[in-house]
Amino acid sequence: MAWTLLVLAGLLEVGWAIGLKYTQGFTRPLPTLLTVLSMVASMGLLGLAARTLPIGTAYGVWVGIGAVGAAVLGVVLFGEALTPARVVFLLLMVVAIIGLKVTSGH
User: Fold this and answer.
1) Pair 47, 53: CB distance under 8 Å
2) Which residue, among 90, 91, 98, 89, has the nearest Cα to 60 in the 3D structure?
3) What residues make up the domain containing 52?
4) How far is Cα of residue 90 from the mean position of the Cα atoms in its chain?
5) Are 98 and 42 in contact (CB under 8 A)?
6) How many Cα atoms are found within 13 Å in the side-chain-facing hemisphere of 57?
7) pLDDT of 105
8) Which residues form a coiled coil (predicted)?
9) Average pLDDT of every residue of the chain
10) Side-chain half-sphere of 106: how many Cα atoms within 13 Å?
11) pTM of the model
12) Are 59 and 6 in contact (CB under 8 A)?
């Protein structure tokens, strides 16, 4: 259950990271509200997952999911550059996330 909560927390982190772009500096009320709600829910779920999982593992996976998701959606939604080097490093982050899961003992 903790891993499910952690993955949901990571996906919500992607949501609020992308949401920051749409708030336009927190000047747009609806995107701002949705972004803040996503932040709160993401951190809340991370906190619940960290009750069971080691904090280093939980935080690392949470940040990794958020970083990879935000980078991929940045390419898809905002036309950010996708260079071969960027692909390699994103894949390395995915490998690190999987490695943390496999070695966590939970």
Assistant:
1) no
2) 98
3) 2-103
4) 13
5) no
6) 19
7) 76
8) none
9) 96
10) 17
11) 0.90
12) no
SS3 42: helix
Cβ-defined contacts of 53-58 (< 8 Å, 24+)? 53/2, 53/3, 53/6, 53/104, 53/106, 54/104, 57/100, 57/101, 57/104, 57/106, 58/2, 58/6
Under a CB-based contact definition with an 8 Å cutoff, are residues 77 and 48 in contact?
no
Model confidence pLDDT, tens digit, residues 65-103: 999 999 999 999 999 999 999 999 999 999 999 999 999
Report the number of distinct structural domains present in the chain: 1
Nearest to 38 by CA among 64, 61, 15: 15
Tokens (6 digits) for 23: 């708030």
- What is the DSSP annotation of 45-71? HHHHHTTTS-HHHHHHHHHHHHHHHHH
